[in-house]
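Hello again, I could really use a second opinion on something today. I've been puzzling over a protein and I'd love to understand its fold better. I'm sending you its amino acid sequence along with the backbone structure tokens. It would help a lot if you went through both lines with me. I've dropped the whole record in just underneath, so have a look.
***
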Amino acid sequence: MAMPSPITPYHQKLYPAIDPTHPELSTAGKSILITGAGSGIGAETALAFAKSGASHIGIVGRRAAALESTKSTIAASYPSVSVHVIPGDMTSLPSITSALQTFASALPSGKIDVLVANAGYINKITPLAETDPTDFWKVFEININGNYNLLRAFREVRAAKAVVLHVSSCMAHLPYVPGYAAYQASKLASTKMFEHFGVEEEGVRVIQYHPGLSRTEIGGTTEHLGLPEEAAFLDGRFVWAAWDVESLKGLKGRLEGDKGLFTVGLEGFPEIN
């Protein structure tokens, strides 16, 4: 099924402009921390950053064995990249704080350059009235409270010019989708939370994106989303990984003049300065 898109062309495969081996997308010397990196999007993102030359990659999750598998995959092809396996639970502020501090303490600078907030949870897809209350609320515990804890922990160990990539979902801005009440609500709420972090934390760039739809444990995957300095105009925006990078660059002037473009809000509501 073709997805509607304000940006063309719409990509479903890796293309040169976002190839992590492209010199302009190099992350050499950078430290990257990725949550939910034991499988799916998180594991693929870790591999992509290894391809782009990151010096240190911290992979965080609750399943140590899965994290070790991700580390082994990276080590097999990119042995020069230091991969740090750090078990941690985002729903516990002490646990995730300890995880980030452990990674930061292993870095030469003691600071983390890039945070990829990828971990998430989706409950059984069913009408609202038929959902299991405990499973319903678990979505919010991980997708909202978990990311709240993550951001609280990250601000203490972030680099001065850190980048935050929030792996969100189109569910944050789509109209009603049957059976997705908890997931849509949690993604909308977490989108606003990351917006606040980006505005309140001086020097931090926050970009939120829908990674695409394919088969992983939670429902999507993406190739490397390159974030060179020229991507600064996307700070505070919500984009789709499938949107063409060159076409997005062509919208730079429009985006700089329209603070509401590619953000989540009420269409037609006047801008508040």
